[in-house]
């Protein structure tokens, strides 16, 4: 475990904290920061680590919690981590670079799977919150597209609070094609739509089940809607009828967990 500041050769791949960051290399490592995100990654035997920066206090906390600390860990001052991230990043003294998790495909899903399908949800905070909720409900996987979706790193990983280590993300080239493949595998495909013909609790849900969520504002695209077996709505009793997509996902998963 090395003491002191990281060497220049190991220093920022992002650019300084107060400078414009260049576009991220999509083939580069996943960037995980914050206590929960880093701890869950360190406990995940499928993760391959490249670099870990930790403050003395953060490292002490890891050791007190019995979290395995890799030999690559570098003890640094908080400012060294600050310079790697954006000004609003709350890193809690931990920054981990790791290889992306092994990719999965739709044909690897179990016959009793519960999956979430995300239709062009681009906000990493929302997707991260959905991942966190999915981990809490034991979701088998999240299906999304390579385009029009955030990478499983940085802000998304922080918002997921460790959920990325427990819920695989399956990336498909075309969402409609992915939904058709799920249909061929006898998945019940339920699209959440405010104009749905029936309320979600009234739908006789069964496994394998795919809950399909659209972006806030736009909702489900027309092609996505046609690939669903049923469109269901969430009836809200209060004055505000619409929900943040991550909150809608939580309610839908609660209904699904109770019924399917």
From TrEMBL:
Family matches, as PANTHER family: 23S RRNA (GUANOSINE-2'-O-)-METHYLTRANSFERASE RLMB
Residue span, RNA 2-O ribose methyltransferase substrate binding domain: 31-104
GO function terms (MF aspect): RNA binding; RNA methyltransferase activity
Pfam families assigned to the protein according to its UniProt record, in alphabetical order: SpoU_methylase, SpoU_sub_bind
SMART domains: SpoU_sub_bind
GO BP annotation list: methylation; RNA processing
Keywords: Methyltransferase, Transferase
Taxonomic classification: Bacteria, Pseudomonadati, Pseudomonadota, Alphaproteobacteria, Rhodobacterales
Name of this protein: 23S rRNA (Guanosine(2251)-2'-O)-methyltransferase RlmB
Disordered: annotated segments: 1-30
One Gene Ontology cellular component annotation held by this UniProt entry: cytosol
């Amino acid at each position: 475990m090395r003491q002191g500041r990281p060497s220049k050769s190991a220093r920022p791949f992002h650019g300084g904290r107060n400078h414009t960051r260049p576009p991220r290399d999509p083939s580069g490592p996943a960037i995980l920061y914050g206590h929960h995100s880093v701890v869950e990654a360190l406990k995940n035997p499928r993760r391959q680590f490249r670099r870990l920066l930790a403050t003395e206090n953060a490292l002490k906390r890891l050791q007190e919690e019995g979290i395995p600390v890799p030999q690559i860990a570098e003890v640094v001052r908080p400012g060294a981590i600050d310079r790697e991230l954006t000004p609003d990043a709350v890193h809690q003294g931990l920054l981990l670079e790791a290889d992306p998790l092994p990719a999965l495909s739709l044909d690897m899903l179990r016959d009793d799977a519960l999956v979430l399908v995300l239709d062009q949800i681009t906000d990493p905070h929302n997707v991260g919150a959905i991942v966190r909720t999915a981990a809490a409900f034991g979701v088998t996987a999240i299906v999304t597209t390579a385009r029009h979706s955030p990478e499983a790193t940085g802000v998304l990983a922080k918002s997921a609070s460790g959920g990325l280590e427990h819920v695989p993300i399956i990336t498909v080239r075309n969402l409609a094609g992915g939904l058709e493949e799920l249909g061929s595998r006898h998945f019940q495909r339920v699209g959440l739509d405010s104009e749905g013909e029936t309320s979600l609790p009234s739908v006789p849900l069964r496994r394998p089940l795919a809950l399909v969520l659209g972006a806030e504002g736009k909702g489900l695209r027309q092609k996505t809607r046609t690939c669903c077996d049923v469109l269901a709505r969430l009836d809200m009793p209060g004055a505000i009828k619409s929900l943040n997509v991550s909150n809608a996902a939580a309610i839908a998963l609660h209904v699904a967990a109770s019924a399917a």
